[in-house]
Specification:
This protein is mainly beta. The protein contains 2 helices and 10 strands. It has one domain (7-133): Calycin beta-barrel core domain (Lipocalin, Beta Barrel), CATH 2.40.128.20. 12% of the residues lie in helices and 56% in strands. α1 (17-23) packs antiparallel against α2 (28-36). It starts with 6 loop residues before the first strand and ends with a strand. Belongs to the calycin superfamily. Fatty-acid binding protein (FABP) family.
Length: 135
């Protein structure tokens, strides 16, 4: 049985965000701004339904989905694209595949103790973020 990811998580660290955003064709000004942000995550996990909120001082992004069901994701707030997204479990990791213009786009979340890890990929770039559970 997969873990329940419900909780509020505060930003701890990130690696390689600028190169990840460059792979998504984000302009240099927005890349610099995003790299300064320290997003929080709020996850509501009820059975196969999940809501993942990424919360920043600039803009929030909400993913609301059922695990295992493909849906059209509007990534307009991120990079102006739409893609076909499927989120599923691979063991204890929540894995997202985003099919669209960019190859190898997606992410995976997993817990290590009270830390939430996020590994995002686009093309050949990988960005890793870590968050600390606070409630």
């Amino acid at each position: 049985m997969p873990p329940n990811l419900t909780g509020y998580y505060r930003f701890v660290s990130q690696e390689n965000m600028d190169n990840y955003l460059r792979a998504l064709d984000i302009n240099v000004v927005l890349r610099k701004l995003v790299c300064l942000l320290k997003p929080d995550k709020e996850i509501i996990h009820t059975g196969d339904h999940m809501v993942i909120r990424t919360i920043t001082s600039l803009r929030d992004y909400v993913m609301d989905f059922d695990v295992g069901v493909q849906f059209e994701e509007d990534l307009g707030p991120v990079d102006g694209r739409k893609c076909q997204t499927t989120v599923s479990w691979e063991g204890d990791q929540l894995v997202c595949e985003q099919l669209g213009e960019k190859r190898n786009r997606g992410w995976r979340h997993w817990l290590e103790g009270d830390r939430l890890h996020l590994r995002m990929t686009a093309e050949h770039e990988v960005c890793v973020q870590v968050f600390q559970k606070v409630k």
